[in-house]
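Reopening this ticket.

The earlier resolution said the output was attached, but the attachment link was broken on my side. Pasting everything inline this time so it's all in one place.
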Amino acid sequence: MDPLSAPVAGAESERFANALVEVARLGNARVKRITLPVGGRWSIDAKPVVGTDFCEHAHLGFLARGHFVGEYADGETFDYSAPAMMCIDPGHDSWVEGDEEVVFIQFDFERDTTEKLGLAPRPQG
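Inline output:
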């Protein structure tokens, strides 16, 4: 079985919008494996559930599969192709580009990720 899709021992699985999110708590942090399907887009799939115009979470981790792109509210874009380290600031839309699902491993502290990991706010414009 492909290790990027095999069950993770000790992780809790949940569906959020169209994503499969598997979470393991390690100390005060969470490690997540997030799988997004071909055609997945935050503004289409998650925005109606969350109720904000943009994703307001930081994403720090490793893109293990796929092509993941997005745009911030000010029009600046990001573009990651696996394998890649990712750092995405709050206030973005994002989507799966191409014909391969996205799998990324994320490290976070819920809403305190930016502060606890010492990430500086992204300059606007």
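Reporter confirms the inline version is readable. The chain has a mean pLDDT of 90. DSSP finds three helices and nine strands in the chain.
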